[in-house]
Automatic annotation (TrEMBL):
<protein>
    <submittedName>
        <fullName>Glycoside hydrolase family 28 protein</fullName>
    </submittedName>
</protein>
<dbReference type="InterPro" id="IPR051801">
    <property type="entry name" value="GH28_Enzymes"/>
</dbReference>
<dbReference type="GO" id="GO:0004650">
    <property type="term" value="F:polygalacturonase activity"/>
</dbReference>
<dbReference type="InterPro" id="IPR012334">
    <property type="entry name" value="Pectin_lyas_fold"/>
</dbReference>
<keyword id="KW-0326">Glycosidase</keyword>
<keyword id="KW-0378">Hydrolase</keyword>
<comment type="similarity">
    <text>Belongs to the glycosyl hydrolase 28 family.</text>
</comment>
<dbReference type="InterPro" id="IPR011050">
    <property type="entry name" value="Pectin_lyase_fold/virulence"/>
</dbReference>
<dbReference type="InterPro" id="IPR000743">
    <property type="entry name" value="Glyco_hydro_28"/>
</dbReference>
<dbReference type="GO" id="GO:0005975">
    <property type="term" value="P:carbohydrate metabolic process"/>
</dbReference>
<dbReference type="Pfam" id="PF00295">
    <property type="entry name" value="Glyco_hydro_28"/>
</dbReference>
């Protein structure tokens, strides 16, 4: 397991993700702080990924992302519980969108907080949160977050999961999340509805 970790003062340049947690973390990741980091032209910024089969000890909880700048990151915030890598990643068991039995193979995502973050020239999606129907993401809290999209943004895959369309300038998408809080979250240059929610239990914004 990984507990009580601080990542600070890092330059994260290009690559699939800036700070990536999972998907192979059967011991869990808890109480991690990421602060004072710059992400420059990574595909995703703050990225959490898991999938069925990782196990009940694969708990990700108490993550805090604070004072982070992103430049040209295509999808700044991605939480994906349908990650499709590995030989069986495209299997019906991993990718089924219907609720499955909660058992020893079910992972869990608890609380994630993002605060004081500025992301410029995003392309695919500002926030993309995709939880399991049988085990939704616990809580996402965003405070003082500013996201702007590049005028010439191209469509692409925000989260690596089957059956998800390529998107462009998608503001906030959330499915299977117990609670979402948005405090002073500004998004500029998006297309379509600002909030696209499905099976979100509780929502508040100010």
């Amino acid at each position: 397991s990984c507990k009580n970790t601080v990542i600070r003062n890092c330059l994260l340049d290009k690559g699939h993700g800036g700070i990536v947690i999972g998907s192979e973390m059967s011991g869990g990741v808890k109480d991690m702080v990421v602060t004072q980091c710059l992400m420059d032209h990574t595909d995703r910024g703050l990225r959490v990924k898991t999938r069925r089969g990782r196990g009940k000890t694969a708990v990700i909880d108490g993550l805090v992302f604070r004072n982070v700048e992103m430049r040209g990151v295509k999808a700044p915030f991605v939480i994906n519980m349908f990650y499709f890598c590995d030989p069986d990643g495209h299997s019906e068991y991993v990718q089924c969108r219907d609720p499955q039995p909660v058992d020893d193979y079910t992972p869990r995502l608890g609380s994630l907080t993002m605060e004081d973050i500025n992301a410029t020239d995003a392309q695919f999606a500002g926030c993309y949160f995709d939880g399991l129907p049988e085990m939704p993401i616990g809580q996402v809290v965003m405070k003082n977050v500013h996201i702007t999209f590049a005028p010439d943004a191209q469509a692409g895959q925000a989260a690596m999961a089957d059956g998800r369309p390529h998107v462009k300038k998608l503001a906030i998408y959330a499915e299977n999340v117990k609670k979402i809080e948005l405090h002073n979250v500004r998004i500029e240059g998006y297309e379509g509805e600002r909030l696209q929610f499905a099976n979100v239990g509780s929502f508040e914004e100010d």
